[in-house]
Each structure stands twice: as structure tokens, then as C-alpha cells.
Amino acid sequence: MAIFGYGDIVLYSGRGCQSLSSEISSRLMVPLGGCDVIKFANENIFVRLHSSVRGQDAFIVQTTSSPVNDNLMELLIFIDTLKRASAGRVTAVIPYLAYARSDKKDQPRVPITARLVADMIQVAGADRYITLDLHAGQIQGFFSIPGDTLTAFPLLADYMREKNLDEAVVVAADLGFAKKARNFAMELSLPVAFIEKRRTGEFSSALTVIGDVKDKDAIIVDDEVNTGGTLVNAVQLLYDYGARNVYCCFVHPVLSGNAAERLGQLPITEIVTTNSIEIPHEKFKLLPKITILSVAPLLSGVINRVHEGRSVGEMFKPYHGYS
Amino acid sequence: MAIFGYGDIVLYSGRGCQSLSSEISSRLMVPLGGCDVIKFANENIFVRLHSSVRGQDAFIVQTTSSPVNDNLMELLIFIDTLKRASAGRVTAVIPYLAYARSDKKDQPRVPITARLVADMIQVAGADRYITLDLHAGQIQGFFSIPGDTLTAFPLLADYMREKNLDEAVVVAADLGFAKKARNFAMELSLPVAFIEKRRTGEFSSALTVIGDVKDKDAIIVDDEVNTGGTLVNAVQLLYDYGARNVYCCFVHPVLSGNAAERLGQLPITEIVTTNSIEIPHEKFKLLPKITILSVAPLLSGVINRVHEGRSVGEMFKPYHGYS
Amino acid sequence: MAIFGYGDIVLYSGRGCQSLSSEISSRLMVPLGGCDVIKFANENIFVRLHSSVRGQDAFIVQTTSSPVNDNLMELLIFIDTLKRASAGRVTAVIPYLAYARSDKKDQPRVPITARLVADMIQVAGADRYITLDLHAGQIQGFFSIPGDTLTAFPLLADYMREKNLDEAVVVAADLGFAKKARNFAMELSLPVAFIEKRRTGEFSSALTVIGDVKDKDAIIVDDEVNTGGTLVNAVQLLYDYGARNVYCCFVHPVLSGNAAERLGQLPITEIVTTNSIEIPHEKFKLLPKITILSVAPLLSGVINRVHEGRSVGEMFKPYHGYS
Amino acid sequence: MAIFGYGDIVLYSGRGCQSLSSEISSRLMVPLGGCDVIKFANENIFVRLHSSVRGQDAFIVQTTSSPVNDNLMELLIFIDTLKRASAGRVTAVIPYLAYARSDKKDQPRVPITARLVADMIQVAGADRYITLDLHAGQIQGFFSIPGDTLTAFPLLADYMREKNLDEAVVVAADLGFAKKARNFAMELSLPVAFIEKRRTGEFSSALTVIGDVKDKDAIIVDDEVNTGGTLVNAVQLLYDYGARNVYCCFVHPVLSGNAAERLGQLPITEIVTTNSIEIPHEKFKLLPKITILSVAPLLSGVINRVHEGRSVGEMFKPYHGYS
Amino acid sequence: MAIFGYGDIVLYSGRGCQSLSSEISSRLMVPLGGCDVIKFANENIFVRLHSSVRGQDAFIVQTTSSPVNDNLMELLIFIDTLKRASAGRVTAVIPYLAYARSDKKDQPRVPITARLVADMIQVAGADRYITLDLHAGQIQGFFSIPGDTLTAFPLLADYMREKNLDEAVVVAADLGFAKKARNFAMELSLPVAFIEKRRTGEFSSALTVIGDVKDKDAIIVDDEVNTGGTLVNAVQLLYDYGARNVYCCFVHPVLSGNAAERLGQLPITEIVTTNSIEIPHEKFKLLPKITILSVAPLLSGVINRVHEGRSVGEMFKPYHGYS
Amino acid sequence: MAIFGYGDIVLYSGRGCQSLSSEISSRLMVPLGGCDVIKFANENIFVRLHSSVRGQDAFIVQTTSSPVNDNLMELLIFIDTLKRASAGRVTAVIPYLAYARSDKKDQPRVPITARLVADMIQVAGADRYITLDLHAGQIQGFFSIPGDTLTAFPLLADYMREKNLDEAVVVAADLGFAKKARNFAMELSLPVAFIEKRRTGEFSSALTVIGDVKDKDAIIVDDEVNTGGTLVNAVQLLYDYGARNVYCCFVHPVLSGNAAERLGQLPITEIVTTNSIEIPHEKFKLLPKITILSVAPLLSGVINRVHEGRSVGEMFKPYHGYS
User: Is the pTM of this model over 0.80?
Assistant: First the structure.
């Protein structure tokens, strides 16, 4: 039966996040829609839906992790397909939004690709978007369609809280993350410290810890880990400054290149992340100390609320501080 | 000095067609603009121009051949960069436009990706486009910005004419190309024949030649060759029907998968194509009988005319029949 | 009761297709909406609806046959009226879309009027369109609103199939129609032949039949017949090549100028077409051998499905080959 | 040489105002651009320009008088052609804009066609417009592109002033024109009177003159005359109220239906109008007492100023009161 | 329960019309939505809704009277908030629309701010608008979203009719209002007269009454009263011409500057207006002879009909003459 | 003479920044354009330009400081006026952009007003913008028109560097400013410290200094100072932690409410800011220790470069770190 003008939920999964989509599908008790997603010999991606979505409330779950541009293009083609197939409403569910770090001109003659991506999603025909922990909350403003930007930091905080670390400190590995790290620390009732990186030459830089980490369990927190380079340096530095254990918490396990290998070898107590990006098996097995929290309950809950016109805001504290 | 409101030509090359761009650059006597085009570890593409393009008449040459989605995304990011760097005008020069075969809904619930791509190019900020032998002329209408769609078929025809084949026939390997094949034949004052493919079962089909090819030199003509499957069948069929030699002419050498290998082994007299797509060396060496005509004179001529506000139409016959 | 956010179907007819609209109205069991459509003394067209359409699911049926520009303008004004009268959704049902042959720049400095028309329909405020056998399937991509492009060729094929012609051949009178003619032939399990027209001078041209028609019933197939000139030549030619009977099948009976007279005098067995365009009585009586199949069941079926959010695709074979 | 980023003026004429365009062409000393404007047998209008307009400053002069919808469509197709032919700037010069009276919803469920027309002109690709005495000045706001709305009332006023009518009064035949009539009267230093029309039944109405016309020369002024019905009644009424002579001044001689005949038979001293609309010869000869003032000097002056970036405002008094 | 695709009515009030909104709220039996509307120390306005509006049918009532720009900005921010909070539909209810007199370029180099305001309302995300007696009906055409422009003149007319003034005349104080004054007169079956203002020098002007007011009750009618200057002059003039009583009827009591003081001192029988704008208490007490008719029944009736998809037109006479 | 398609610079000043505009005017040697900017009795703002801007390169300098909404509306009306007056290009020069802190949804049901403002500037008709130290660099991405976002921090850094403070530390008073503070520190080769604010109850919070300030000159740096509340607390705290002197550097002196008074009474060595916002005289005299650096050289330099098509980037270090 139609709620608010749309038919039933129909749920599709791009090839970037099959496991997560399956989990969402189970929780929603809505089967994944049948479709062919083909990459032809000429690399052109093609989508064909197996059954009608006319008037339905369509959700396409597609993360834009590796292969980034293929996954992004697949998302856009899916949206176009759903729109032209006369879906009642098309919501792009993007657990991890690529290009979010290209969000401003911080030097002359560079692009603002995150705005471009938002425009592409809109021009393809999406009516709404749902995403998770954008690198900068302002990226919400790159969209003129409404959307729901969720945060998985409370998930990470809940997990860490249960460890009852008695002498701990939250550490921002990057000053751009200072405020969110403070908020994370506040949720855990812990102090906060910062790592300052300062270029000392064209190819060298010096790191300093500002704040007190000595004899403490340091919890490095960030939105994503890419190559792991920052993390490698940070972990070493924290031990140098006297930290007794180091934990790493981040939402998006991008883990580019040999990041998994590097992280696997770090003298780190535990890595805590989510399945916003699916870690391929060969990388996963290099990470014995990793804990992956599922964002499926979060995303499926939001999809349900969006569909039924119930508040999404009430799932979170009014001011959660992660946007 | 400014002509028509823009400064000088500034010319950039995407990574998809470096050789062609160099050739265009030489012909225009305009150096390729310095820039960094980086694919970060997380696969996000990033562009940074080395010098100011403010007010200039910018041309970005980027083909969208393999890797298709990376090249397409790079093109869009280049356009955004040029727009935000305040170029006076941004022209996307796209020798080969991917996704052109996804140009209509010929079955339910499929995308029209070619329109999506046109919209993406516009929303990124291109003021104009230049392209070559679109799969369907109607794709021009997918753009609302003005553009120049050129054809390289006269190049191919000129080359074939000089062979003075006395008993030849032009053959369309696909009925969708019948009309353009007739026009190609007309330019060469040759008759035309068609290969009809008809499905006979779910996985089988029968081919027939309609028209007379016996004891003739058959010139198969098409806009692009992808996997080469159609061509392999066509060549064999034409010999079966009594053709004495077979030539293949096509503009865009997509040559996906093992197409180069297949074509290299065909009992074919000559393959004639263009450099709208750069054939990688390892494929090229499998194709001893290939002749590659350069579209650089064509593209550089048009860029010059666009810049100077001179007629592009006068480079072609009024009705050339390849749109 | 509202389905998918819109109220009941309300159905209006432009003055271009009153009979067809009445037939659709009967089949839908929805009366045509009362309205004044006035062409003032100054030729300005004016529309006034007699009752409220607020929130309703409005369909305006208007073909764009002669008088073409009046009918087109009337369609646009109807759409604007429905939008500003706060219809819940406005669907333009256009059995025949004019200007569809002006769909590409095949020579310099000409318009792409079909894209212009699509833009005009959108800017007037249509949410969707329904149309029938576009000259080129790509015109779907000229719209960014979703729509349903239907085909009446299966209707024509069904009708011809029942004749059980034992030795017949399908003939494309224009090479641009070669592929669709092949598909039509495939549906009837018949071979296909082509008529090639080649200019031989500024005002002269030569016609050739490619393929075998001797001693066969030839079925000429095309999307529309305009002046009938092509047809007159084709029929004569087919008899010259030994055809024993000639049938003509086409969807849109444009029949401009004295086309009806010319066709009426042709030595033709039967003309089979549809009522996508209403043939005026004075023309109709010149065509004794014409059979008109109604597209009203098709259009009313689709309107119902669009309204109820049921699949339109399942009315057709997945790949019907007429787009 | 390029002024302000565009090349030379290129000037085209639609078929709606050939004489006026020729006069403009002579005054600008710019020949009319060669072009084919064809109405095919199927009534589709087609435009083809004979030479390149790339980068030029294109002006298309087309009035939208009878045949209104054909002329409007021709204007739009011309604009699309010029845009896609890469004109540097496209200015639509529309001496008379049709549908201007359909400018508001003054009853439920009617269109605002004037806004629709403005949107159509923009979506076709016009960069600017020039027009003359819009029915309501607010129609300027229907455009978001810049434009120049000119007035020919000073022309009419200058002409009337030279008659040195000693006892005259300006009369508004419609109360909607009261303010502009007052302004016209002010320019001539004459008093003003009004004709009030009041419906007295469904098909009857009563007319009253408000103000003093007895023993005076009455100068009826209006923006356009359509069927002439209002005028016929007004002239009789003014004589009934004791006017000694009646003059009629209006900018746009729409003269629909038998208006010319009716006006020709009126006991009127002189009709003064302009060539914003070309009066066909057979109508013209019915109007012995008509004086036609040319708007060509006005339009060519403005075209020149637009091209050269000089003030258009200084051609008029700062507040002329006719918008 | 959802009607036509939206949830329940949710009703918000801007700070510009709290009393009117409360009255509407009572009539609709829908409580005003809780929200914080804050003007920070830096004058930035901020809106926060207390509960979810997801999928609901949201109406924001905000007049744009003094402080005009603050109220306008607050309206826009409210719309943005509702859109981004995923309201199903956002309707801007604007009893008085500011800037409506800046609706055309009646002199060179001035803005058309009313169009700008319409664009701002649309770009902020409104789906519909409801407003009351626009200065010019054409402003409806500045919006491309649908809307309902209502009139309160029948309210004023009903009130005046009950006075049974036996010898009365309706007077337009401005010639731009002549036609609407005639319509108001027609509703009351009264004659109409006009005041003509004519500039006689740079800073002086002369007023004349055209029509008969002697020994009559004069009812001045206008859409709004701003500084009251026109009215002060008109009242005096009417007495000079022999009127025995003067009434003033207008919809929007803008009453800028010391207008209330001036009007309070006028020898006027009664001022009749509406609460489209809330008259502040200190002004109200200066106006002993004022009667304020409430537009709340009108606005709440329309909101209900918009929500339920019932005709708004049937609340008015088909052609009411006030647009 | 026209450079890049536009005429000469024409420069207008809104009423929000008359002194700054005058200084820019002097530096550019371009007089401020004559215009009337009127706030009518009804508070509607009106703009009228005194002379033609047709084809010229127009710059309107208007800051959006107090009165914020009036100044913003005035800016938009100016842009509309310039566009409709046919300026060749319109650049909005906005030294201080209001609403920049409303740049993301950091809690449910709040607006993103900064995006709304960007959209309003674009819909009004600006072709470009120039602004200074946006609160978040991402706001650049809210615009799809190109623009130049400049920074005045190097100005502040140069001024501070000349003091040769031997034992100093840069302090970020807000963790959201941590990264930019680090960059400011890096330019001065100084260490950096942070003030952490943590809510301890609904109405209370605790402040901590993280990093070393003891016996140092503390330089608090921020983008703007609004009420001064943060600053008052920070200064006290720094002295508590042993700082020997405190300096305050910020670009935008918003100084709302009694901020000037509060700052004037602070035990602070020097306040260093710019004239991006004009401090009214009565506030200025409360601030004896203030130094105001002019951004006029910066803005006039950029205007010149934008006009002449020369690089703006080369005025800054490639990566300046303040976006």
C-alpha cells in the first residue's frame, strides 16, 4: 500500500557493496531487486531491471569505493534506469561517498569534485540521498535535493565505551579532525590530544603531540583510513610520547594500496571500523586485530523511516557533532 | 589578442589520448598546457593546472576509451577545473564518445546513458563539445550546448578511392549502418550490399548477404569495431559468398578484449581506421595489416576555426550523410 | 481513491485527435474532461477547464498532425493550464510527434527541432509523456522526464500474419528503416529486401532493389507516409522487379498534400495503418483499400498502467526492436 | 572587428515581417542573411542558414502576427538554428509578441501563455530579446534573460502633436489602458477621458464616457486593435457624446478577421499605427484613412546600440510611462 | 492519512504574522508547529523545527511586511529548512508579497525585484505558493511553480454592500487601478470615477476628478495603502468636488512611516481593510475609524482545499476581475 | 577597449561598505558608478543606475554585515539591475559573506542557509563572485559559478611577523579553526596551542588549554569575532595558563551587540583585523588598541586581474592553507 505517494520499497544493490546490501535487505525483509549489471567488453556499464518499479519507492545501495569511477558510474546509470523506468522516487544510498576530500579550492586551478559528484547524482535523477559520515558536513550543501547524512561514530563510541578503558585519551591524527575528535572524546568522557604535522622541507615534516598521552591508552579517531601513512606515523609517535596502548577507530576502511599490510604490522591493540566499505578477503586476512561494526542496522532503519515518513532525527542525539 | 571574447587557445590533454593531443598541439603550434593529473591511492582523480587560464579559450582533448569510466571522470574533472579556474570558454574535445550505443530504451527498464553522459558534460561546465562520428547523429540532440560533430568517413573514403579497386562493393555488416554504408558507397561510386543477421534460437543466429558480392573486393564499413565478433563472422561469410578480397574500414578502433588478436588472424587484405582511439602497442603489433589515418588535421583544423569564429561546415560537403 | 500520490485519472483531448480520444475515454470508462479550447480571432489559442483537476492524474491526448504548429501550441498551452491548475501529475499523450525527423544536424546550420519540442513540452510543465513509434528511438533521450514510447508495429504484424501470405518479403523503402524492417520481417518469419535510392544528379536519382522480390508478395513497411512520393516509386519498382502483389504497412498516416490521392491510385493490394493520426474524411474516401487499426486499446492500456503503477513493459516483448 | 566579444551583426528575417526586416537591414547597412525557410508538405518548418554565423552577433527579426503559431514556431526554430550554429549571441527581435494578453490567471484553470512563450524563447537558446509595447510591462519579468522593451507611443505622439489639434481629448477605450492613455495625453498636453464598459447581462453591456469629450477632437489610444469591435463601439459612443472628430492611434495593427473592413467603414478622421505588424495588401486597401509610421528607425537604432554596447535608455525619456 | 501523496497538514508561522497564523491554525484545527526562529546577535536568522515533518504537507505562513527584508529572508530560510527536513510538499503562504510594485522596467536600469523574489522562493524549494491580491496579476507568471492567488476584494465589497449607501460612487485614486475599481463598482452596482494625477513640474502635480462624485458617498478603493500620501490628497479632492462622505477600502494596510497618523486625522467616514498585514498596536490606536476584516477564513479554506485536492476556484466567481 | 569580451570596469558600491569601495575605486582609478539606492517608506529597496552599463564589466561591492538582510537583499537587487541593464558580466564582490556559519545540517531540521544564499546570488544573475575568508572553504562549492575566494590571513601574518615576538604561540580559540591556526603558526614559525571547550551541563562548560602557552605571547587567531564571548573567555584562560601577553587576530570584525565594549575592556595587547566590515564610529572609539589592515589593495588587485584575465593565483602562495 502506498505511503506518502510511493508504492513499496524496492531495493537494488550496486556491485560495490553486495554483502552490506544483502544485510540491509534481510533487515528490511525486502528482497534485493533482480537486475543485470553488465560491464561489456568495451567497459560500458549497463543495467537492466528484471521487473517493474513503476511508482515504487526505489533505493539503490551503492558505495563508491574501489573501483571508484566504475562504481560511481554504475550508481549514476542505476539512477537513470530507475528514473526512466518511472520509479515513484529514487533514493541513492551511498555508504561511502568518494571524492569528498576534493571539496574546496585550497590552491589555484583545482576542481571541487565533490560538488561535481553531487551535481551528477542530481542530474542523473536522484530524488534523495542517504550517506554516512561525509568528510565535511558542508558537502550536504552541495546537494539541493534533500538527504540524510548519518553518522556511525556513535556506533564506534558505544563499542569503545564498553571496554571501560580507565586511563585513555582520544587523539586526532589530523588537525582538520580536531573538533570531531573532541566530540568523540566527550561522548566517552575522555580528554583529547592532537597530532600536529608540520612541513619542514619539501619532502620532510615533523610531528608533535599536543596534549597529554603519557601512560594512557590512546584512541586515534578519524573518518577514514586511506593509505594508512598518517596512521603509521601517528602510532609510532604516540608510543614515543609514552602511550601504553593504541586503538584506531574510523568509519570508512578505504585501505588503498598496501594499507592493509601496513596496518596489519602496526603495534596496535585493535582497529575498529565499519562495513561502509567492504574489505576484500585478501586484505581482511592481513588484519587480525580488526573489528568491523555493521552499519546495516543504521541504514535499514533509515530506509524504513524515509519510506514511512517517520523522523530520522530521533535516531540520533539532536546535536551529535559529527557533521 | 582576444578574438570573439576569449583569449588565446590553451590546450590540455587527458591521459586517454596523449599522442593525438601532441599531434594536435604541433599542428596548432600551441603547446599542451602543463598540469598534474593524479590518480591517488584511493583512485580519486585530481587535476591541477600549472598556469592561469583566466579568460582563455580552453580545449581539453580527452577520449573516453579504455579505461572508460576513469577517462570519462577525468574529462569531467578537467572541465570543472577549467571552469572554476575561470577559463573564458571550455570546449570538450572527445574524439571517441563512450556509451553512445546506450542511446535509447529499446527494452523496458534500461538506461539512456548517452544522455546521462551529455548531461554530465554540461553540468560539469563545458560550453561546447567537439566529437567524431557519433554512433547515432541524434546524440547531438542530447546536448543543449552547441557543438561540432565531425566525421572521419571522408578520410577513409579518400584513402580507399586511391586504391582504384575496379570491382568492389561496400558492405554494411549491420543493418543499422545500412544508410551510412550506402553514402560511403556513393562517395566511392560503388554498389552496396548488406549482411543480415537473424536470431534463430536463444544462442544461435543465421547470417545472409543481401546484394551481390561475388568476385568482388568487399569493403566492410562501420563506425567502430568492438570485440570484432561481427567482423569475424562477416569476413568468413563474404568469402563464402564469393568475395575475392575483404577490406575493413571503421573510424573508432575500440578493439576490446582479444579483438586485436582475432582481427590479426582474419584473412583480410587491409584494416583501415583512425587514431580517435589510441591502440596500445601490444595490440597494435598483432595487427600487421592495419592502416591508421590521423584525425589530428581534422581536429586541429576545427579547433582553429572554433577559436577564430570561422565556418566549420565548409570543411565538409553540405550534406555528408554520416550524422 | 489516490494511487501513488495522485487522484483519479482526468482525461482531456486536444482538437487534433477527438475520435481517438473518445475511443480511449470509452475504454478507460473515464469521460473526457469538459473544457473550452478557443482559437481567438487573433489566432491565439486559449484553454479553460470546466472543473477542478487539483491533485488529479491528468492526461492530455493531443496529436501533432496537421495543423502541426497549432496542435503543438495547443498541447503546450494545455500542459501549462493543467500545471497551473495544480494537477497532481501531467502526462502528455502524443500519438504522433511532429518534427521527429529534424533530430540531428546532418548538415551545417540546421536546427534539431525534435529536441526543441521535447524541451518545450518539459518547460510547459509535463511530468511524463507517452508516444508512439518515434522516427528515431533516440528522441526518447531528448526528454529528461520519464516517458513511455510504445510501438504499433506488433499490431501491424499481427494483422499481416493472419493473411498467411505464403511467398512474401518485407521491403524497406528507405535504408534508414532497414533494421526495423528486418525486425518486422523476423516477426512474420519472412525474408527482407531493401530499396536503395541513389542520387545521380542534382534532380535525379536511381532506385535499386537489393534482395529478392521476384514472384513474391512485397510488404513495404515504414514508420510514416508523408507525401507518398517514396511509396509511389517503390511500388512501381517492386512490380518492375517481379513482385506479384504489394502491401503497404506504416504506423503514422501523415498523408500530406495530395498523398491520399496518389496512394489511392497506386496498384496496391492493401494499405494498413493506424489512427495515430486522424485521416480527414475527404482524404479517407480516396483510399478504398486502406485498413486502419486502432491504437486506442494500446494507449488506454498504457494510461491505465501508468495510473496504477503497473508494468508497461510487460505489454510488449522485452526486446521488440522498434525503438 | 569584435565589439564586446561578438563578431559582426548578422541579421535574419523570419517570414512574418519581410518588409520591416528589409527596412531595418537598409538602415543598418547590413544585408539580410541568406537562408532557406521551408514549410514542408507535412507543415514542419525547417531553417537552413547559407553561411557561417560562428561567433557573430545574430539578430533574428520575426513578428508573431498571423499565422501566429507558425510564426512563433519559426522564431523558435531560427533561434535553435543560430544557437547550434554557434552564433556568439542570439537576439530575438519581436516587433509584436503574441499571447501577451494571456498574462495572468484572472479566472480558474486558464494558462499564462505569455510566460510559456517567454520560457520557450529562452529554452530555444535566445540570449536577449527586443520587443515593442508589450500589452503589460510585467511581461518583461517573464523573461530571465535581459532584453529591451521599446515603445512606439512617442512616435504616435509626435505625429499627433504636429496636427496642432486645438480642442482635443485623449480617450482610453479600455480601462486597463487608463494610465498609459493619461501618459499619452500628458505628452500632448491634452485632457483624458475614459470609456467604461459594463456587462449588463450575459451577452449585453453598456458603455459610458467618463470625462468630457463634447465638441472635441477625440483621440482614441490603445496598444493594439484586434477585431476592432471595441473601436467600432467607442467611435459611435464618442460621437453620441458630442465629439466632433475621432482619431485612432495604436501601435500594433493586429486587425483580425474583418477588422480592416469594419475600420474602413468607420466615420473616423484618421487611423495612425505602425508597421510592427505588416498589414496584408488586401486589408490595407480597405483602409484609406490609415497612416503607418515605421518602427524600423527605432529597431535598427536599438540593434546598433545593443551591438555596440551603447545606451538604449538614452533614446527615450527616463520615465516614458508606456511599460 | 495521506491524501494525494502527502501526509497531514503541518503549519508553521513566521514572525511576521503570528496573530493571523494563530487564527488560521484554530480554523484548521491544526496546531502551529513548534520551532525556534532565532535572530542571532550577528542578525543571521536561524530556524529549527521541533518535530519531524518528513513526508508531511507543510504550510509556512509568513507575510513580508515590515521588517520586510528580515521577513522575506525568514520565509526563505523556513522553506529551505522544510525542504531539507524532507517535507512532502512545501507551500509558502504569503498574505502580503513585498516588492510587488517593482514588477517591470518602466525606466532604464532598474530591477524587476518581484521576479527576483519569485525566483528566490522557488530556488529555496517551495513547491507552491498562496498569496492575496498581488499588485499586478501578472506576478503570478513570475512563478513557474503553481500557486493560488486569492482576492479579498469580495470581502470588502460584501462589507460595503451591507451599508446600503444609496448615492455612492467608487473612486480609483490611481489610474493603474481603474479597471479593478470598475469591477469593484460593478459588484456594488455603483458608478465609478477616477482621480487623475498629472505632473505639472518637477516637484508639483495637479489632481482632477474624472467622473461624477458630487453629493455622493465616495468609496476610494485600492490594493494597498503605503505612506497614505495619495489618500490624503484624494480625500481632500473628493470633498472639493462635492462628495458628502468618503470611505477607504484596501486590502493591504502597509501604513509605512507616519501613515497611520495621517489617516487617523483624515475627515473620513471609515477605513476598511484586512489583516493581511498586522497593524502594530501603536499604529492601530491612531486609527479609530478602521475596520479590519479577517482573511483567515479565506486562507484556511484554501489551505484545506489545497491539502485535500478540492477546487479553490469554486470559492470565487469564475471571473472575479481582481487579478 | 574590450578585453576578453567585456567593456571597461564599472564599479558600484552597496551601502554596506562605502569606505572600502571608495578605497578600491581610488586604487583602480575607476570612479564609483552613480546610482540611487533607495529604501522606500515601505522598506522596499530600489536601485537605479545613472548611466549605461551595457556590455561593461560590472563589479558590485557589497558586504553583508549589519543590517545583514537589508544588505543581502540590496546586493541581489543590484545584481538583477545590472543583469537587466545588460552588463557584459556581473561580479559580486562580497568582502564578508553572511550566513556562512549555517553551512551544514549538524542537527535535524535546520537550514543550510549558506547554500541558499549562494543560490540566490546565482539566480539573481551574478556571473562571478569574489569573497574573502569564508568560514568554511567548502562554501566555494555551494556556487556553481566561478569565483575567487581570497584570504587576508597573509596580511595579518605579515603584520604580526614584523613585531618579532620572540617567545610566542598561536592559539586557536575554537577547535574548528585548529588547522588554519596551525597554518598561521607555520607562516610565523611559531608553535600552536588550542583551547578546548567542553559542555559540562546544559548551561555550563569548561575550557582547557591544550599545548604550551606559559610565559609566552599568545596570538589568538580566528576568522571572525561576533559577540566576543569566546574571546573574553579565551583571553582570561590564557592569562590563567601563564601567557604574558595576548594578541587577537581575525579577518572579519562582525562585533555584534556589545562586542566592541567587551573587547575594549579586555586586558589585551592589540587587536588586529581588517576592513572587510566597516566598524561604525561609535564602536570603533571603544577599541583603542585595534589595528585595521585594509583589504582594498587585495580586492582591487583581484578585480584588475579578473578584468584583464591575469592570474589571481599568483598573488598567493600555491597552497596557502586558509580555504
Answer: yes
